[in-house]
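Lecture notes, unit on protein representations.

Consider one protein chain, 88 amino acids long.
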Amino acid sequence: MDVDAGQLADVLARLKRVQGQVGGVIRMIEEGRDCSEVVTQLAAVSRALDRAGFKIIATGMRRCVVEEDGGTRRLNEAELERLFLSLA
């Protein structure tokens, strides 16, 4: 899926935050923090990753629907559905 990097600036920012969150979770585990705190942070990381994936797919779907076929492979409905459901 060919997506303009400018359209994905939000996704990149989210992923950089996730990267920091994962580092925080690792530190929490190494420090022996309470498991409920660790799980809460893991849930936040998971939601952030899901949102990044949904944003990428939504951007791709808009491009696939709006653009004329300019030589790039267009995803069909089944392929888009498979990608979307892989995040669910």
